[in-house]
Each structure stands twice: as C-alpha cells, then as structure tokens.
Specification:
One of its GO terms (molecular function) is xenobiotic transmembrane transporter activity. 83% of the residues lie in helices and 0% in strands. The chain contains 15 helices and no strands. The longest helix has 38 residues. The two termini are 33 Å apart. The model has no long low-confidence stretch (mean pLDDT 85).
Length: 448
C-alpha cells in the first residue's frame, strides 16, 4: 500500500529523518509567511499607511477563522499519523473521507457566517473609522475563499501524516509566487487596493488546492479512495471532533489573545498600528517555523506511538528539541542585527516613527526567541502523544499572562511599544512553568 512519496518514521535512524522531515516544513512555512507578508509589503508600499493598517487589523479576525479550520486538520492528521504508523490502512482511508466531508460542510457554512458578521467583529476590536472600509473589504473577500483554505490544509496535512513534507512545500512555493504576482498585478497595476490583495490571496489558495489534488490522484495510490471518498464513519468522526476541537480551541485561544492585544494597539493611533502590523509579520517568520519543527515532532511521535515504540519517541523528542534550540539561536542573530532593514521592507523611510518603534521591539524580543523554541518542541511532543489538552491549557496560560501584561504595562503604566515584547516574555515563562512538570512525568512513563 506504500509508495515512494510516504515516509515510515517507525524504523531506522531518528535524528536524520526527523531533520529531513523538518526542513521542508520550515522552508514551506517561510514561503507561507512570504505569501502572507506579500499583502502587507505591497499594500504598504503601493497604497499607503492606512491600507497597511487595514490589512494588519483584519489579520487577527481572519486568522481566528482560518485557525479553526486548521485545528480540525491538525487533529485529524495526528490520528492519521498513528493509523499509518500502525499499518491500519482501512481505518486511515475512512478517517480521510470522514474528515474531508465534514470539513467541507463546515467550511461552506462558516464562510457564509463570517461574511455576515465581519463588520461587527471589526467594530468589536475598535477598528478606526478611517480604516474600516478597507479592512471590511479585505476580510469579506478572504472569507469567500475559506473552502479553498480547508481543502489545501487538509490535503497537505494528510500528506505530512504519511511522512511526505516535501510535496506540500512545492505547492506552497508555487502558490506564494502566484500570490506575489497577483498582488503586483491587482494592487500596483490595476490599483484595486486592499481588495486586489485579498483577491490575489484567494486565487493563489485555490491554485494550491488544485495542484495538491492532481498530485494525489496521480502519485499517491494510498489516498486514491474512489467511491470511498464518500464514506462517513460516525465513530471516527467523534474521535476526530475530540482531537480537532481541542486543537481548534487551542488555536482560537491563541488568536483571541492576539485579537485582544490588537484591540489595545488600535487605541494608540495609525502609526502604532502600522508598526505592530509589521513586527507581527516578523514575529510570524520567527515563531511559525518553530511551530512547524514541533509539527514534525508530532508526526514522528504519533507514528511511533501507533507502532508502540517508546524508545524512538524519547529519542525523537530529544532530537526535535535540539533542532528547536539551534533555530532559536539563529533567530537571535538575524533579528537583532537585521532589525532596521527588516522594518524597511514593510514601510518607507519617510515613516520614521513606524521604523523606530519596530526596531526597538525587535532588538528586545530577539533575545527571547529561545523560549518559544522550547515551548513549541514540548507542544509537538504532547500532540504526538495525543495529549492535546495539555497544549490547550498551556496555550491559554501563555495568552492570559501575555494579555494581562499588555494591559498593565501598555495601558495602565504607559511603558510604550516595547512593553509588547516584555509581555511575550511573561507569557512564555508562565507556559513553561506549566508544561515542564507534565513533560517530566510523560518522559518517566516512557522509560518504563
């Protein structure tokens, strides 16, 4: 049932296949972020500060919905990794069809709902009147493409669950290139503003769906289900909902925290909003690759859990944490010494206040990147073990600590823009204090 596109992680070396699986995930994530950042960079340069603020203030609301969908995909992929590792291909095929059918229905309904409530959501986070029209147009167009977002994420996560992280990378690269070309055409040439940027994003997502589906049909026999695409297994659906809802709640918790912080920032004026949009994009480049290293650990650990190989689980965790730490140190150097040039990508030199605010933030937060490297590795371990409640609770504690710190330091004591970086530090410390005792207990169990 297997072919060359799949990678069985239950046999052979540990570190080398884990690194080999991680590298395409990290590269793919950079292209995904480039895909997202293209909107901000091109809109900021060709339309202006107000349009950049509109894209930035829309992002937390947009991500809240998208992360609900990706949470379902992530939960299903953990189950698929375990089923693949155990060699249970019949259950794997039923898992795939059940998740696809339910996810498509959910995506269509959610697309309609979010288009209707876009304006109230933007008002809830106190988007300024001068930014509202552009933010609303951007958000509604993005929400039209939710179905494409789900299908691509589902197919890509399915391939990764089978150990193939390279193929989704190729489709992300193609999609990112199409998104940049579309942004330049619709925004710079046609002058469609933020609406043109959103249209480009939706079209590029649709193309990635098509590429992925065609590839699976031609190259992955295990996933060519035929009539079995329409099999719906209620018992598997219950387990998928359990995993997917916990994973989705974790993502939503994270995004609600970010949205509250965005609402606080929105009270400080357009320049502060623009600076926060820029540093958020930079933070994405820093954090999300760390998360994908954790996702590689999740796949490795879930496959080996399905195969009942405890020692490989322990060794996989150790190797994954090592990769995370090396990446965290690289980020420290790049972000600290490249802060001003990085900010220059998002705004012109005439916006001196925006550049100065972003530079001060990056100089401080670069020293802290080692902490999320550790937390993401630990979260990857717990996801792979199927203990998603730990990842949910730790994420809640992280965001609660961060939000409270922002309110106290930024609003009450008026400590300025860099207080946003100090709030990150507080959130990560709280998260680690919760996770480490539970991690020690799990590792002890694996030694028995």
């Amino acid at each position: 049932m297997k072919n060359g596109t799949e990678h069985d992680m239950t046999q052979g070396a540990v570190a080398v296949p884990l690194i080999g699986f991680t590298i395409p995930l990290v590269l793919g994530n950079f292209f995904q972020l480039f895909y997202n950042a293209a909107d901000s960079i091109i809109v900021g340069r060709y339309v202006g500060e107000r349009a950049l603020a509109a894209v930035g203030t829309s992002t937390p609301v947009m991500n809240l919905v998208i992360l609900l969908i990706s949470g379902l995909c992530m939960g299903a992929s953990i189950l698929m990794s375990s089923q693949f590792g155990a060699g249970n291909y019949e259950q794997l095929s039923r898992q795939i069809s059940t998740t696809l059918l339910s996810g498509c229905g959910f995506s269509i309904g959610f697309s309609v709902l979010t288009i209707l409530v876009s304006e109230p959501l933007l008002r809830l986070i106190q988007v300024p009147k001068e930014v509202m029209p552009d933010a609303l147009a951007y958000l509604r167009i993005i929400f039209i493409g939710i179905l494409f977002t789900f299908i691509y994420n589902f197919l890509a996560n399915t391939l990764r669950a089978l150990g193939d992280s390279k193929t989704p990378l190729y489709f992300l690269v193609a999609s990112a290139i199409l998104n940049v070309l579309g942004d330049l055409l619709f925004v710079a040439v046609f002058g469609w503003g933020v609406a043109g940027s959103a249209i480009s994003t939706v079209l590029s997502e649709a193309s990635s769906c098509l590429f992925c589906a065609l590839y699976i049909r031609k190259r992955v026999p295990l996933l060519c289900l035929g009539k079995r695409w329409f099999v719906f297994d209620k018992s598997l659906m219950k387990k998928t909902i359990s995993y997917g809802s916990t994973s989705a709640m974790q993502q939503v918790c994270l995004q609600i925290g970010k949205t509250i912080i965005q609402a606080v920032v929105n009270t400080q004026g357009v320049s502060v909003m623009a600076a926060f949009t820029a540093v958020n994009r930079v933070d994405d480049f820093a954090y999300i690759p760390q998360q994908n290293i954790g996702h590689a650990m999740t796949t490795f650990i879930a496959q080996n859990k399905g195969a009942g190989k405890k020692e490989r689980i322990r060794r996989g965790f150790q190797s994954g944490i090592g990769i995370e730490l090396v990446y965290g140190l690289i980020l420290l150097v790049l972000m600290y010494f490249g802060a001003e040039k990085i900010m220059g990508l998002f705004t012109s030199q005439e916006d001196a206040q925006v550049v100065a605010l972003g530079r001060s933030y990056l100089h401080l937060v670069s020293w802290m990147y080692i902490l999320p490297a550790i937390t993401n590795g630990i979260q990857g371990f717990f996801r792979g073990m199927g203990d998603l409640k730990v990842t949910l609770y730790s994420t809640f504690m992280n965001m609660a600590g961060r939000v409270l710190a922002v309110i106290v330091m930024f609003l009450v004591f008026n400590l300025g823009f860099v207080s946003l970086a100090w709030a990150n530090l507080i959130g990560w410390i709280v998260m680690l204090l919760f996770e480490i005792p539970l991690l020690m207990r799990q590792l002890k169990e694996l030694r028995k």
